[in-house]
Amino acid sequence: MDNTNWTSVSHFVLLGISTSPEEQIPLFFLFLFMYAINISGNLAIITLIVSTPRLHTPMYIFLSNLALTDICFTSTTVPKMLQNIFSSTKAISYMGCLAQTYFFICFAAMENFLLAVMAYDRYVAICHPFRYHMTLTRMLCMQMVAGCHVLSHLHALLHTLLMGQLIFCANNRIPHFFCDLYPLMKISCASTHLNTLMIHTEGVIAINGTLVLIIASYACIISAVHRIPSARGKWRAFSTCGSHLAVVAIFYGTLTWVYFRPLSSYSVTKGRIVTVMYTVITPTLNPFIYSLRNGDVKGAFRKWMNRLQASFFT
């Protein structure tokens, strides 16, 4: 077969999570509800942080960027999935599919890098508390966030360009709810060796590299916390990290299960279910995980609600 850069398909068909007609309406309302919670919850966190001067610290600068990333992350896939539930064609154009792949990878990588930056923030805050504000200056925070953006776009550009080199013949039906890498590679009629190689090399370095930084940061944190004499002091130190650890466990656990395995052993059915965990459920849970375990956020939220009530009744 001629392996020149061309494709014989003008669009793909996204089959969705389920092809059963009786499951379409429940799935629509379930994902619409989670999407609405995700948008409103993360917007509330961003609004709280922006409007509360006391929260203009490195930790909350990173948290607001994570909330914005979560909104963009789910908005890349969920609206199209909701539209396709009631669509007779369930189609997405070839360029639209590549664009969705690009932004999905970009925001997934952005979340990955931000979680590593937030782990470093907790390391400095707990292990070097007296140097915290001297180390994590506003300029350094902005540079770290900008670096996350640059690395995320480069990571997404690499894998999208490689995906654009694949040839798709007669089969244009994707058994997934968005244009993910492995389902696209499964239906390609060209060799996907280079794509798989880059996922298992550059992808592993990008994902596992940040995971190593997170583990190293928390190893230092645990060592420092064990030196605190009082049990109350230990609990207070660990409570500031518990929410972050919960997000890290869900995000990296599901991401590793989906992508860091041979393409031949990838199960589309299991893959799309696990993918829902880090594309929809984790971004939806993040506002609750970070707010319910965070006294500063809960305090700012109460003051915000009191101001709204006061302005409403006056």
Write the layout of secondary structure elements.
Blueprint lengths: L10 E4 L6 H31 L6 H18 L2 H8 L5 E3 H34 L4 H4 L2 H27 L8 E2 L6 H7 L5 H34 L4 H29 L8 H25 L2 H19 L1
Structural notes for this entry:
The chain has 314 residues and is mainly alpha-helical. It contains eleven helices and three strands. A three-stranded mixed sheet has the order 2-1-3. Helix 1 packs antiparallel against helix 3 (78-85). The protein is globular and about 65 Å long. The N and C termini lie far apart (74 Å).
- The radius of gyration is 21 Å
Strand content: under 5%
Q: What is the strand tally?
A: 3
> Can you count the helices?
11
* Major sheet characteristics: 3 strands, mixed
In helices, the fraction of residues equals over 70%
In the sheet with the most strands, the strands line up as 2-1-3
Low-confidence stretches: 1-7
Distance between the termini: 74 Å
Name the helix and strand elements from N-terminus to C-terminus, one letter apiece.
EHHHEHHHEHHHHH
